[in-house]
Specification:
Length: 208
């Protein structure tokens, strides 16, 4: 009875408890009857009511779990579409397509009350979506370094006298450092190096 009572309390306090209100009320009623029967030493009735309570709690747990999984699918779809709306490369697009397939499969599994399969598919979609973050950072780093290189080439072309050779050499060094960082998947740091190089090059270009 104590375990069932604790379980009931936990489910009742869940944010999705309203979805299983009828089942939780049925469990509470059965637990009250089970307690009364135990206190009256009518153990057969106590066990019978306890079984009813646990059955109602199982139903409530399933309903709440299903509700949470459905909400997670909605949230992940929103995140996916948000990422898709930005600048993405083919690798990211492929991951997002696969994540959407998993979410559609999870939704179908939920409709068939196959919660384990739905949960597995949702977790796969989560991993795919999370993986896009790293790929997007790589894309941003590659673009930033490529842009810095273009600016450097333009600055060198204009600075024919080599007046700003030292500045441009410093910028080139930063770009090379950024490339090395990108190769080791330190994309945020690589972007920082590209930004530093661009700042130096922009100052040179402004002076030419």
């Amino acid at each position: 009875l104590s375990d069932a009572g604790s379980r009931h309390l936990g489910l009742k306090n869940d944010e999705m408890a309203d979805a299983a209100d009828a089942e939780l009320k049925a469990a509470a009623s059965a637990l009250t009857l089970a307690t009364d029967a135990r206190d009256s030493r009518d153990f057969r009735a106590a066990y019978s009511e306890l079984d009813k309570a646990n059955s109602a709690l199982d139903q409530a747990e399933t309903i709440i779990r299903k509700k949470k999984l459905a909400a997670e699918i909605v949230s992940l779809r929103s995140t996916l579409e948000s990422i898709r709306g930005g600048k993405i490369n083919d690798a990211v697009a492929a991951d997002l397509d696969n994540a959407m397939i998993e979410l559609n499969g999870a939704e179908t599994a939920l409709e068939q009350d196959n919660l384990t399969d739905a949960e597995t598919r949702i977790n796969t979609a989560k991993e795919l979506i999370a993986g896009t973050d790293n790929k997007l950072k790589k894309n941003t780093a590659d673009d930033a370094l490529a842009n810095a290189e273009k600016m450097l080439a333009a600055a060198k072309e204009k600075d024919k006298s080599g007046k700003y050779g030292e500045n441009l050499a410093s910028a080139e060094s930063l770009i090379n450092e950024g490339k090395a960082l990108a190769s080791s998947e330190s994309y945020s740091e690589a972007i920082g190096k590209a930004d530093e190089a661009e700042t130096i090059i922009a100052a040179v270009l402004a002076s030419l």
